[in-house]
Amino acid sequence: MTKAAAGRVTIRDVAAAAGVSVTTVSDALNGKGKLRQETRERIRQTADSLGYRPSRVAQAFRHGRTGTIALVLPHRDVSGNEYDMIGLDYYMTIASGSARAAFSEGYALMLTPRITTEDEWRLIGPDGVVLCDPAASDPRIDMLEGMGIPVVSIERDPDRPDRPFYVSGDNEQNMRDLLDHLHQGGARRIALLSARSSWAWTLEGEHAYQSWCAERGVRPFVAHVSVDRLEADSYRAACALLDADEPPDALIASAEQYSEGATRACRERGVRIPEDLMLAIGIDNRFAQQSDPAITAIDLRPSDQAGAAVDMLLKRLNGTPVDKPSVVPSQLRVRASTSRS
């Protein structure tokens, strides 16, 4: 049985097969040393025939890198305790998609705790960072870039309009597509549960909603909801809307767990979905897919967003110019919660 058949081929296997030293193989494969061209070619052909692939970890150390990418998710404060949002479907898919994309390029992905100081970042020592949902003027971007650690964000920093290093969905168009769909289905009083945050997707979605209402001369109904107690606060906000003198006939729950609170409020009041209220959500998840009725949602394609973010970060690490953001197309998933026919 050959080494290639038995397991991973090493540089020592290539050296033995080519009849040269390990140093000579390293010089040949890395374009170093004073070797004859035919010797380089013979060693490269030997490496190819054995299926040798260089260790990205070893390459990283040679270039002063660690071979790791850090993924930073948002945190929320629930009853005085901090939790990251890995439990939400969107961020779980971001994490798994980032890990696959990093691994395919020979990098390890590290999911970090909440880090606030340069010393903590030096302890971890990532080559680069994928940052989800930066806040306006997010200080972490300045800190990391100042340390020489490049950052690519999923969604943009709202206060850095000229910074191209981000991946996002077309948030304004997504909201308009959802509003048009509800309006075409007969909705005339469309309310919005909007996250109380400075995240770009929140600001852009609410701006699109306000603009859409102004263009049609209809009254906007916006309830701002915490991002800390997602289901409980969205339930209370939905109750207030449904108990108003003129309740909405359609409701957009912008964040992932807002639809759970809204659904509970409707169920307790005997409000039928979609007959009395059409319900849609801005971020698709398993609850929306498995609910009865299933809930219309925007599929942001988080796995594709994660892959695009890792790809952009690796370009920055490799010195490839990045002069514009990457916009990942989303898809409106129309389901029973907005279908009255």
TrEMBL record:
<dbReference type="InterPro" id="IPR010982">
    <property type="entry name" value="Lambda_DNA-bd_dom_sf"/>
</dbReference>
<keyword id="KW-0804">Transcription</keyword>
<dbReference type="Pfam" id="PF13377">
    <property type="entry name" value="Peripla_BP_3"/>
</dbReference>
<keyword id="KW-0805">Transcription regulation</keyword>
<feature type="domain" description="HTH lacI-type">
    <location>
        <begin position="9"/>
        <end position="63"/>
    </location>
</feature>
<dbReference type="Pfam" id="PF00356">
    <property type="entry name" value="LacI"/>
</dbReference>
<dbReference type="InterPro" id="IPR046335">
    <property type="entry name" value="LacI/GalR-like_sensor"/>
</dbReference>
<keyword id="KW-0238">DNA-binding</keyword>
<dbReference type="InterPro" id="IPR000843">
    <property type="entry name" value="HTH_LacI"/>
</dbReference>
<protein>
    <submittedName>
        <fullName>LacI family transcriptional regulator</fullName>
    </submittedName>
</protein>
<dbReference type="InterPro" id="IPR028082">
    <property type="entry name" value="Peripla_BP_I"/>
</dbReference>
